[in-house]
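Support request, please re-run this one:
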Amino acid sequence: MKTLLWIASAKKDLKAMPDEVQDTFGFALHQAQIGKKHAQAKPLKGFGSTGVLEVVEDSDGNTYRAVYTVKFGNAVYVLHCFQKKSTHGIATPKPDMDLIRERLKAAEAHAQGEQK
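Re-run finished. Output below.
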């Protein structure tokens, strides 16, 4: 089973979400740890084939997302958990995309450090 690693505030952000959202995201992350893909997990657009996945869950009229990667080593890195507040359809807001890119780099640096 892969180790679950949280980047920056991702765990705290998840804990602030409604219980049913935490349950869905927790199960999706567990699936990733055992090498499976949750039914709601899909590649996050804008990252090519880098193994960045997102799980989307709705609760009380709000949309929540958890973004993670399984691409580095023997770990699942949780990059970002957030409530989507975009007014532009389903697109992930640019500040969130920038944060995910930044945290993906941190995960990659961590994984490379682990391999040395």
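The longest helix spans residues 94-115. The chain has three helices and five strands.
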